[in-house]
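Q: Please design a sequence for this.
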């Protein structure tokens, strides 16, 4: 165990991931061979709940890089003087390990990564599969250049492309595996078309109602894909998939007693259910001393805000909070299924969330 004066090391980090069961024998060797620090630039930030804090000094830098935390490597798409929103990072190692495990790669498989970022995941894939089988695309040219340099310095030469990973990679034949390391609001059908039937897609999804969920999809013979959610995953979004702000809310507030602690809305199982029942409703939250405060809004100008232990306020047309309470009781009657009981099907017509079985699609509630 580290004393307060010891800076944690990368072998400590890999050991901790292995002890948590996140790395099988082969992946453990791969992680050991690819030091994370080789892919992290000097200027980085720590992600706090409400902002990014610059990391100052070598010890603080090493402590962050060798911890199970994301390391923010770019703010505001590289613009100077912006609000300080993280737009590129070296992801949390335990999440990387989970996603690579779910990707289920085998020798000889071709992999496409969307979101090269610092190049660390691409390097891990190169170490596991060999350079020639790894393809990685990054939208931001400055980030892509830094990743290419870091990869070359450490001796890895995957196929790299600067461009929009949502668009097909020209001339790339079907791959066996696709991993997105930026969050998607929906799985673009075009992405699936790059994966052979039987291939696997692992991607974090972030919708208006969820902070993030990991989907593991298998591509079918007809080109559609389906599979379960595999727990939570908070990732920075693909640029064109950034979750929009809350809607503008109209009208005077109406107070009433709440039949539901707003903290329940943050449970990922309920969030997946509620998003499918109440499409278009957006939610944000903040922690309070007693629990949480949530705001929910919809395009028609309706909204509600609720704080743990207090009355709820509803705005605009309809009774949005009551719709959410109804969705909660439906969820409760279904036995409060956990996030992994839900799954996703993606076709050329869009995507649908289901519970337990792809035939049990959760349909939108009628207002
Ligand atoms: C969390 S970082 C990826 C971390 C990376 N896998 C690593 O090993 O460091 C997400 C990256 O996705 C990139 N990105 C965002 N939208 C994209 C898009 N449409 N196509 C490709 N990359 C995109 C961002 O610029 C950012 O660098």
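A: Design:
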């Amino acid at each position: 165990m580290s004393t307060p004066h010891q800076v944690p090391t990368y072998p400590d980090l890999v050991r901790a991931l292995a002890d948590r069961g996140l790395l099988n024998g082969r992946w453990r060797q791969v992680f050991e061979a690819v030091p994370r620090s080789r892919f992290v630039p000097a200027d980085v930030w720590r992600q706090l709940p409400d902002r990014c804090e610059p990391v100052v000094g070598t010890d603080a830098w090493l402590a962050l890089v060798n911890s199970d935390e994301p390391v923010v490597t770019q703010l505001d798409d590289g613009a100077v003087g912006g609000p300080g929103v993280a737009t590129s990072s070296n992801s949390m190692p335990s999440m990387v390990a989970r996603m690579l495990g779910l990707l289920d790669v085998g020798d000889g498989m071709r992999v496409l990564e969307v979101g090269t970022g610092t190049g660390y995941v691409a390097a891990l894939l190169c170490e596991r599969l060999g350079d020639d089988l790894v393809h990685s695309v990054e939208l931001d040219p400055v980030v892509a250049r830094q990743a290419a340099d870091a990869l070359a310095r450490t001796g890895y030469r995957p196929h790299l492309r600067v461009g929009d990973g949502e668009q097909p990679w020209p001339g790339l034949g079907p791959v066996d595996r696709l991993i997105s390391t930026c969050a998607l609001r929906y799985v673009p059908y075009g992405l699936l078309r790059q994966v052979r039937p039987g291939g696997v897609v692992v991607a974090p999804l972030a919708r208006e109602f969820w902070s993030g969920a990991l989907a593991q999809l298998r591509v079918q013979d007809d080109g559609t894909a389906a599979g379960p959610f595999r727990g939570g995953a908070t990732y920075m979004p693909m640029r064109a998939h950034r979750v929009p702000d809350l809607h503008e809310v109209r009208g005077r507030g109406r107070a009433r007693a709440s039949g539901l602690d707003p903290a329940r809305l943050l449970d990922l199982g309920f969030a997946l259910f509620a998003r499918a029942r109440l499409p278009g409703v957006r939610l944000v939250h903040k922690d309070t001393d007693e629990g949480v405060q949530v705001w929910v809004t919809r395009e028609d100008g309706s909204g509600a805000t609720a704080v743990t232990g207090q009355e709820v306020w509803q705005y605009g047309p309809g009774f949005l909070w009551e719709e959410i309470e109804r969705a909660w009781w439906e969820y409760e009657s279904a036995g409060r299924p956990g996030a992994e009981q839900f799954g996703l099907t993606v076709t050329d017509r869009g995507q649908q969330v289901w519970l337990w079985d792809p035939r049990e699609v959760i349909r939108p509630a009628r207002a």
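Q: Thanks. Anything notable?
A: The radius of gyration is 21 Å. Residues 88-91, 114-115, 117-118, 120-121, 137-140, 143, 164-166, 181-182, 235-236, 238-239 surround S-adenosylmethionine (CB under 6 Å).
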